[in-house]
Specification:
heterodimer; A: about 120 residues; mainly beta; seven-stranded mixed sheet; about 0% helix; B: about 110 residues
């Protein structure tokens, strides 16, 4: 069974289009994340949701809008796609510890490679 | 500002060699240190998680250590195999639950 699954795996689209990436986890976690891996392979947090509430927004352009319909799902919608949005987007999940003392292991999906042409 | 640094950026070794990958971080307010493996075109696979109260974790041929006072973690791979070839990423977790990643060490184990 796939723990964290993302769809689609590949996405090629034209500039200006709107697209969505879906993520689901079956680990029973209550915290989900979106990370972006740029062309230099550097991974950086974009958003984090805990129990459907936004807890981290790392100065991401407002063209990016995450939506969490329930604890097991975190989707990412991107409006007016730009060339610079081309990257691999990773969804992840973990169990929320309230940010005190020790956190827990994070599990990642296989990534969605977005190419904007 | 690079909060997590991994050295070396790339490493090529012959099969069977023991090796050490290094990770250093600037923020001492660390809760977890997690090591991942990423194969080309694939996602991240969690290898080891060291909680702030721990000093090391072991899984098979892998051993990860954490020294918060010096801001360092190492990943030791014993008896390396060609299948170990991948990019190894370390990430520290602070108070906001997010992971801050290093840029990774690309390991090639030659048969």
């Amino acid at each position: 069974d796939t723990a964290v699954s993302q769809t689609p795996k590949y996405l090629v689209t034209q500039m200006g289009n709107d697209k969505s990436i879906k993520c689901e986890q079956n680990l029973g976690h209550d915290t989900m994340y979106w990370y972006k891996q740029d062309s230099k392979k550097f991974l950086k947090i974009m958003f984090s949701y805990n129990n459907k509430e936004l807890i981290i927004n790392e100065t991401v352009p407002n063209r990016f809008s995450p939506k969490s319909p329930d604890k097991a799902h975190l989707n990412l919608h991107i409006n007016s796609l730009e060339l610079g949005d081309s990257a691999v987007y990773f969804c992840a999940s973990s169990r929320w510890t309230g940010g005190i003392f020790s956190g827990t292991e994070a599990f990642f999906g296989q990534g969605t490679r977005l190419t904007v042409v | 500002k690079q909060e997590v640094t991994q050295i070396p950026a790339a490493l090529s070794v012959p099969e069977g060699e023991n090796l050490v990958l290094n990770c250093s971080f600037t923020d001492s307010a660390i809760y977890n240190l997690q090591w991942f493996r990423q194969d080309p075109g694939k996602g991240l696979t969690s290898l080891l998680l060291i909680q702030s109260s721990q000093r090391e974790q072991t899984s098979g041929r892998l051993n990860a250590s954490l020294d918060k006072s010096s801001g360092r973690s190492t990943l030791y791979i014993a008896a390396s195999q060609p299948g170990d070839s991948a990019t190894y990423l370390c990430a520290r977790q602070g108070g906001s639950e997010k992971l801050v990643f290093g840029k990774g060490t690309k390991l090639t184990v030659n048969p």
